Amino acid sequence: MIKISETIFPKTFINDYALNPIERKIFQILSESDFVYNYSSLNQLKFEIELRINIIEASKEFNKSKIQFKVFSEARCNPDFWELTPAGGFQLKKDILPAQGIKDIFSNSFKYATECSTAIIIIYYKALLKIFPDELFNTAFQNIYLRNWNYIDSDLNVFTYYKDRDFLPADCRYFKNPDFDPEKSQWQGENVIDLGNDTYFGHGIGIKNTESIVTILNQNRKPNATQSAYLTNSVTNPDYKHLANLYFNYISKTRYKFFKKIKPVR
């Protein structure tokens, strides 16, 4: 169920707003669950749903881009915006604004190549740029380093946890390949974004359903392998509530500054 400020939120919400099918699915999963999902305000819930939709859209944009899949040792980036580190990560150059750096990845995608975990972080930033004004984005993420969620800005607050239910569209899921070929370590698993309706985007694999991803991973197992690849119950997400608070605090302060500039009517 959903609670807003400790009050159970009515399921009739779904009938009060023009929700698209994915938005409707997200709300249904949250509201019909036995687990209690707490939000401080309706805006905080709406923000999470909107950001999830944007993550899905950013995943589709990534899929259409020319960003290649390469292992970290073969990664590359646009040197005008990013520095390639020895670990295969992308460090934003000091004279480049964060929003500019992320936008360049999509506008000059042919200049980039990286692994699937880095793709997930790029997708999160791209999705946030659809909501955050550039000014807020540049303030919140001043020192972007793209590799995986162990090397990111604290304000994105990406974390991994495990559960056996309530998997939501835009969750980052993981397909594990326990018997992967040691000579092809990139096939030990695949980080994917859940697009809804049993479809997932994984960098290097594209948009596929569960069966297709398992089949691809199984084709890259060691000789005489016995264990099939499978979708795990791990979920990796940004901190939606924290990001919502950043956004609404910024909007509130911006509005306050705007009204201060207006001369009172006499």
Task: Please explain how this structure is put together.
- The protein is of the alpha+beta class and 266 residues long.
- The protein is built from eight helices and 15 strands.
- It has helices spanning 13-16, 21-32, 42-64, 98-107, 116-129, 134-140, 210-218, 240-261, and strands at residues 2-4, 7-8, 37-39, 68-69, 82-84, 90-92, 113-114, 145-146, 159-162, 172-176, 189-196, 199-202, 206-209, 230-231, 234-237.
- The strands form five sheets. It has a five-stranded antiparallel sheet with strand order 13-12-11-10-14, sandwiched between helices.
- Strand 11 and strand 12 form a beta hairpin.
- Helix 3 crosses helix 5, helix 3 (42-64) packs across helix 8 and helix 4 (98-107) crosses helix 5 (116-129).
- It is globular, with a radius of gyration of 20 Å.
Unreliably modeled segments: 256-266
Compute the separation of the termini in Å: 50 Å
Helix content: 25-40%
Class of secondary structure makeup: alpha+beta
Order of helices and strands: EEHHEHEEEHEHHEEEEEEHEEH
Task: Give the CA-based shape.
Answer: globular
Radius of gyration: 20 Å
Widest β-sheet, arrangement of strands: 13-12-11-10-14
Topology, number of strands: 15
Binned strand content: 15-25%
Annotation field: number of helices = 8
Largest sheet: 5 strands, antiparallel
The overall pLDDT, averaged over residues, is 90
GO molecular function: protein-glutamine gamma-glutamyltransferase activity
Organism: Fervidicella metallireducens AeB
Keywords: Sporulation, Transferase
GO biological process, one term: sporulation resulting in formation of a cellular spore
